[in-house]
Design goal:
Layout: H1 2-19, E1 37-46, E2 58-68, E3 73-84, E4 98-115, E5 118-132, E6 136-152, E7 156-176, E8 179-199, E9 204-215, H2 220-223, E10 232-243, E11 246-255, E12 265-274
Antiparallel strand pairs: 1-2, 1-12, 2-3, 3-4, 4-5, 5-6, 6-7, 7-8, 8-9, 9-10, 10-11, 11-12
């Protein structure tokens, strides 16, 4: 009886995995396949938090452009441009009404396991974070490595991601006569994230998730900054599918650990296309 039951379960998983298409609809396990491009564009605004440190009184526009070199390997470039509607960073760094490049990342993913409904990817990234102060300057170089795994059951998908990040910061942010203010520090962080999607019908699906990041390097500089607490960010959203290649979505996030902030929320709209 146990053997028959196990065989039945595997048969269900196999059938589900075979029917689950690689559709760009906000699915957390999506990535472009062989000779496919993908573009995910997100406009975000909200209140300042460590999870979204640039979003005080401003807007972020992020473009994540990817290409599938094979059915298993995809490479992408992700960049963010921000517009600061107020002087959110203080009098020494007047960013009011300023359009600036915030970061550029190169991201790679390799699907090393694709068995029935179970999928697993190894993730790697390298990028630069920038700051505007009398010109564009590199604020940090960031390296990342992680693993994402989950189940795509057709109408329901759940995935978890574990990552490690090396953030090397070395920048002079402000200088007034004899007074100089800058950062020279290295920070190691670990992150854990869970995401889920439920497909209501062919037009709509809902998503939810949570991400926790914590500093494991205990650099004295970061310990002195209250805003560098360990963020726990929850998110929820809804997506509308035009078809299997295009969708739009609306999302909300909240950093529940940002006790020092009066608010730590974000809202965003997103457009995705596979071609």
């Amino acid at each position: 009886m146990k053997k028959i039951a196990l065989t039945s379960v595997l048969a269900v998983f196999a059938a589900t995995g075979a029917n689950a298409a690689n559709v760009i609809d906000g699915n957390p396990l999506y990535r472009p396949t062989l000779k496919h491009f993908a573009s995910i564009t997100t406009l975000t605004t909200g209140e300042n938090s460590y999870a979204n440190p640039r979003l005080a009184y401003g807007y972020d526009l992020t473009e994540d452009f990817m290409y599938g070199f094979t059915d298993h390997f995809a490479l992408g470039v992700e960049t963010t441009v921000s517009y600061d509607t107020d002087n959110a960073n203080g009098s020494d760094l007047d960013h009011a009404h300023q359009l600036s490049l915030e970061n550029v990342y190169v991201n790679g993913s390799y699907r090393f396991m694709d068995v029935c409904a179970f999928k697993a990817d190894v993730l790697a990234s390298v990028g630069r974070e920038f700051v505007m102060n009398d010109g564009l300057h590199t604020m940090a170089t960031v390296w990342g490595l992680g693993v994402k795994a989950g189940l795509d059951l057709g109408d329901f998908t759940i995935a978890g991601t574990i990552g490690v990040h090396d953030i090397d910061m070395n920048v002079r942010l402000a200088e007034k006569g004899w007074l100089a203010w800058g950062i020279d520090a290295e920070m190691w962080t670990l992150s854990a994230e869970v995401e889920a999607q439920y497909v209501i019908n062919e037009d709509f699906n809902v998503v939810a998730g949570a991400k926790y990041m914590f500093d494991v390097s205990h650099d004295g500089y970061f310990e002195d900054l209250q805003q560098m607490n360990n963020p726990l960010v929850g998110k929820a959203g809804v997506n509308y599918n035009f078809d299997e290649t295009k969708y739009v979505g609306a999302y909300a996030t909240y950093d529940v650990n940002a006790e020092h902030q009066s608010k730590a929320w974000g809202v965003s709209v997103r457009f995705g296309i596979d071609f």
